[in-house]
From TrEMBL:
<dbReference type="InterPro" id="IPR019264">
    <property type="entry name" value="DUF2179"/>
</dbReference>
<keyword id="KW-0472">Membrane</keyword>
<keyword id="KW-1003">Cell membrane</keyword>
<keyword id="KW-0812">Transmembrane</keyword>
<dbReference type="InterPro" id="IPR003740">
    <property type="entry name" value="YitT"/>
</dbReference>
<feature type="transmembrane region" description="Helical">
    <location>
        <begin position="142"/>
        <end position="165"/>
    </location>
</feature>
<feature type="transmembrane region" description="Helical">
    <location>
        <begin position="7"/>
        <end position="25"/>
    </location>
</feature>
<protein>
    <submittedName>
        <fullName>YitT family protein</fullName>
    </submittedName>
</protein>
<dbReference type="Pfam" id="PF02588">
    <property type="entry name" value="YitT_membrane"/>
</dbReference>
<dbReference type="InterPro" id="IPR015867">
    <property type="entry name" value="N-reg_PII/ATP_PRibTrfase_C"/>
</dbReference>
<dbReference type="Pfam" id="PF10035">
    <property type="entry name" value="DUF2179"/>
</dbReference>
<feature type="transmembrane region" description="Helical">
    <location>
        <begin position="103"/>
        <end position="122"/>
    </location>
</feature>
<keyword id="KW-1133">Transmembrane helix</keyword>
<feature type="transmembrane region" description="Helical">
    <location>
        <begin position="45"/>
        <end position="70"/>
    </location>
</feature>
<dbReference type="InterPro" id="IPR051461">
    <property type="entry name" value="UPF0750_membrane"/>
</dbReference>
<dbReference type="GO" id="GO:0005886">
    <property type="term" value="C:plasma membrane"/>
</dbReference>
<feature type="domain" description="DUF2179">
    <location>
        <begin position="217"/>
        <end position="271"/>
    </location>
</feature>
């Protein structure tokens, strides 16, 4: 399970790096975060964006460690520096194709890739550092909500891009920040969608064992009575992510082709393996 989480988070970071290197960085679109600030600083000191991101993130982690304590998961640190490494790799060491055509096209596809990538990383409880780190400091000392702090910091970086380059660059950068946030929310809703499955089967023990041992999900066993037959039966209730549903249904059919089950969407599921209670 841990290996799968890191692989998915790494894939998300890989997509984010592609979006930045191919579309956003070549067009100086500072879409917030450490990468956006690095694009602004690159205007004044000619270090690569990847190197600037190392400098920014190491500095921010050190400041946060002194001011708020070490409140970051290893996964976040890993994703932060993996993104730095991949950007430096694709931008400077093994350069890949960079799109410098229509800026609107660059904004759209750059944010599409970065939003999908970041949403995948977020779904594995990881982030890529940057303004998230500063937002923690703002939250501790000023009581500012994390979401508002991140938005304020990112838009400030977009404005700085306008001052460093030109007005159009600044406006495209702010547009990117808004578009990126909207796309991340949209993708996360799809990734995080959960379902409830209600299962009635004579082989409920085998299905229960599959869910517990293979899917590593919890199962609730309910005593039910058939309205027509009056028979007492056992029903299983399973909550799981939508992406796991196909595997469950396939194995229900394998174990008991005559099983009866109902699937319905669950808007919010809280607890172990799902959303954390805050």
């Amino acid at each position: 399970m841990i290996v799968q989480e890191y692989l998915l988070a790494s894939f998300g970071v890989f997509l984010t790096a592609l979006g930045l290197v191919i579309f956003l960085i070549p067009n100086n679109i500072a879409a917030g975060g450490a990468s956006g600030l690095a694009i602004v600083l690159n205007r004044f000191v000619s270090l690569s964006v990847g190197v600037w991101m190392y400098v920014i993130n190491i500095t921010l982690f050190l400041i946060a460690f002194v001011l708020v304590g070490f409140d970051f998961s290893f996964k976040t640190i890993y994703c932060t520096f993996l993104l730095n490494f991949l950007i430096d790799l694709f931008d400077r060491i093994f350069p890949i194709f960079k799109y410098t055509g229509d800026t609107i096209v660059a904004v759209f596809f750059g944010n599409l890739l970065t939003a999908v990538g970041m949403a995948i990383a977020f779904s594995q409880n990881a982030s890529t550092g940057g303004t998230d780190i500063l937002a923690k400091i703002f939250n501790k000392f000023f009581g500012a909500p994390m979401g508002m702090s991140i938005l304020f910091l990112d838009i400030s970086i977009g404005v700085m891009a306008g001052l460093a380059y030109d007005l159009n660059t600044g406006m495209y950068s702010v547009l990117s920040i808004v578009l990126n946030g909207t796309m991340i929310d949209f993708v996360l809703k799809g990734l995080e969608l959960s379902v409830n499955v209600w299962i009635i089967s004579n082989k409920y023990e085998e299905i229960k064992d599959f869910v517990l041992n293979e899917l590593e999900r919890g199962v609730t066993i309910l005593d039910v009575i058939g309205g027509y037959t009056g028979q007492k039966r056992r029903m299983l209730l399973v909550a799981l992510k939508r992406r796991e549903l196909h595997e469950l249904i396939s194995n229900i059919k394998r174990i008991d082709p005559h099983a009866f089950f109902i699937v319905n969407e669950a808007r919010n599921v809280y607890g172990e393996g799902f959303k954390e209670l805050i």
